Amino acid sequence: MGPGELAERIRQRFPEVLEARREVTVTVTPGELTSALEYLRDEEDLSFWFLSDLTATDWPSREPRFWIAYHLQSLEHAHRVRVKVGLAGDDPRVPTVTPLFPTANWHEREVYDFFGVEFDGHPDLRRIEMPEGWVGHPLRKDHPLAGVPTQYKGAFIPPPDQRGV
Amino acid sequence: MSVQPVREETMIINMGPQHPSTHGVLRLVLELDGEYVVSCRPVLGYLHTGIEKNTEYRTWQQGVTFVTRADYLSPFFNEVAYCLAVERLLGIEAPPRAQVIRVMVMELNRIASHLLWLATTGLELGAISIMLYAWRERELLLQIFEMITGLRMNHAYVRVGGLSMDLPEGGTDSIRGFLDLMPGRLHEYEELLTGNPIWRQRTVGIGAISTADMLELGVTGPCLRAGGLALDLRKSQPYCGYEAYEFDVPTRTEADCFARYAVRVDEIRQSLRIVEQCLDRLEPGPVMVTDPKVRWPAQLSVGPDGIGNSEEYVRHIMEESMEALINHFKIVTQGFKVPAGEVYQPVESPRGELGHYVVSNGESRPYRVHIRGPSFVNLQAIPRMVEGALIADVIAIVASLDPVMGDADR
Question: Residue B118 belongs to what H/E stretch?
């Protein structure tokens, strides 16, 4: 199926389908996420059972603020789809997809680490890249790139412009 | 008569983060019962450098210099994945000559990466000679990269819209020389290893995992192909014109460390085939799009002191054309704007599916760049491969996955 056909096919079930740059994006609510991914995985002509990637984007000026993107592919049909779900800024949480796609385990830990999104039902939701005890979620837009004291194991190193020579 | 109670306690051992055979700073927390691994918990993050965050503070073109450092053993793949994604957002395509050179440097890079894998894996399993030989051939490739891009690693050679510069004069001769030399050298490697009883004992039947498990855990690349599934993005979802090249996708069925070795050596042969076809396809032409709103204005070249602007170009902007000077400063300091939208661009890196998810909000800087590093995902399969194995086999198994921590931690 080409992207146009694929978008048409998915639109029969989920109305919010966008086709742009030969990619298909389906937007669903957090409530229908699990059933949507199950549907995309189990329908014979779709068979999106391989989760390539899972990540998030932070849009502080929008509501919902956090957008999780699930990149699925079908190895039989060599086509791809992106499923997006928007989460509220004050308490971002979404059901885990680890039971459906075990590979999501570390991806969800990464999103939790970098964005502070909670994945309900995740078997082991801990930070994965940042040190344990790190304060904040560095890929949020309100987390500065630099110019903050660096924390490491309780030691604070001042930002570069405040260090003595 | 007293009966000695059976000892039931296990021992927890940290392998890494500083360990010569963990391929960078990977830490494995192993629970051991004697020599056997009961459980394994990988700990990541020691090489997290904030590449994704950094790209949000630079122009689109500068993003190349960051992503190239993610998987530092296959820099060209990072560059191509990122540039293809941005080009798709812009709705442009690099000229044909640039596409051919991109394929060529990627395949040479695949050979370099597999050679480094062979060298380090050999070293870790006690085969010192293969380390010296594979390192020797990789050095030839690094010299070729230096001649083409000015740098041995982290090239930032592929740019949005094409390449930073064309091949140097006589550049193809040394590549042809390498192509002539390599088949004989590959034969040498196989003479050393394939039938070697020690090598076979350390790899055959070690670290086997079912294809279903690998797919469940998202494993891609040579590891998956060693389990019999010929999944290769160059064939299934071609980019850069890969559909026009003739090559095979090597597979094995055993899914153990030896099968991964065999697949990688065969892949070097296929890459040599592709590079040869690239050399035949090279037609004269531009290597950068002509749109002045996107193209990098300076004509770069590798001189005796590194990459620099050509004198002719400097004379043009400084003495002849005010408009050219203004355009130069606008593009170099502010960059170009990219229409709002998002794309996911996968490419087949030496380690598997490398995906770049790039989001634009219409500004001159990326809004979000996410790298789906194949090493990150493949490492998730480690516990399933090592649990129940001997501790000495953990070394062989981790090596056979070929993780690059720069790619896993970004």
Answer: helix B96-124
Domains of chain B: 43-294+336-409 (1.10.645.10), 295-335 (no CATH)
Residue appearing with tokens 């086509």: A79
What's the total number of domains in chain A?
A: 1
Asked if omega into A64 is within 30° of 0 (cis), the reply is: yes
**Cβ-based neighbours of A36, under 8 Å, separated by 6 or more:** A14, A26, A28, A83
How many Cβ atoms from other residues are within 10 Å of residue B390's Cβ? Answer: 15
| Domain that includes residue A63, residue range | 3-140
**Residues B48-55: what's their mean pLDDT?**
90
A69, A129, A139 member nearest B357 (Cβ)? A69
Query: What is the DSSP secondary-structure string of A88-102?
Result: -SSS-EEE--TTT-T
Q: What is the dihedral of CA A34, A36, A42, A46, to 10 degrees?
A: -140
Whole-model pTM: value is 0.90
Shortest CA distance to B360 belongs to which of B377, B388, B338, B380?
A: B338
Q: Using a CB-CB distance cutoff of 8 angstroms, which residues of chain B are in contact with residue A145?
A: 50, 53-54, 56-57
Does B342 sit within 8 Å of A25, measured CB to CB?
yes
The per-residue pLDDT for range A109-147, each reduced to its tens digit, is 999 999 999 999 999 999 999 888 888 898 998 887 776
